[in-house]
Amino acid sequence: MIGEVTTGHPRGLHSRRHVRSRSLQVVLAFGAVAAVLAIAVVVVPLLRPPGPRPLFQLPVACGETWQLGTYPGHDDYDVDLFPTEGEAWGRPVLASYAGTVTEAGINGSLGGRTPDNPDGPRGRGGGYWVKIDHGGRWETQYLHLLEPPLVRVGQRVDGGEQIGRVGSTGNSGAPHLHYEQRRGWQKVETYFDGSPSGITHDDTEYTVTRTSNNCASGQP
């Protein structure tokens, strides 16, 4: 008599494979949910409208008068700052408003312009630079610093706190501070102590003088 013949895999093995398959599906589902949440954490704040403009101050010492200027080819809204008195090299660069440092290092390449060799080779980009997030999707940028920034990424800074010194690193022809204010992804006209700078385009050369009211640290 021929005994009963079975085909296929044993029932226990099939059950274990089914459990493993279900477990894998659960893990993949949780992974997908986690990925979506992670993307939402990054993307959703960027889709929100910017908050009100912070009361930005000139990024230089209290009471000093500086020339703000632009020129053809400089790019809309970009501001170059030069002191109206004294040497530019090494002057303190201050945070325009309280915030968190998001960049502090080298943008492009440094070149070789220093106080001892002011006509040295130019570099590329912004040289030593700092970028600060002020909340509400507002940022400021500070370029062509003399030396490595005095702050680090992730550091919280107060308005009026020194973040570097004026130099001529990167693509710079003379010691000065290149400065920008950004709302969301876009550069906007710079405001200082609540007043517009008047620098909105680079069609023609334009200069204006302003006196700094960046006189107290610890702005909210």
TrEMBL record:
Membrane-spanning regions, if any?
26-47
- What SUPFAM superfamilies does its record include? Duplicated hybrid motif
Domain (M23ase beta-sheet core) ranges: 90-188
Q: Does the keyword Transmembrane apply?
A: yes
Q: Which domain of life is it from?
A: Bacteria
**Which keywords label this protein?**
Membrane, Transmembrane, Transmembrane helix
Q: Which Pfam families match?
A: Peptidase_M23 (PF01551)
Molecular function in Gene Ontology: metalloendopeptidase activity
Q: Which Gene3D superfamilies does the entry link to?
A: Glucose Permease (Domain IIA)
Cited PANTHER family: MUREIN HYDROLASE ACTIVATOR ENVC, PEPTIDASE-RELATED
Q: What is this protein called?
A: Peptidase M23
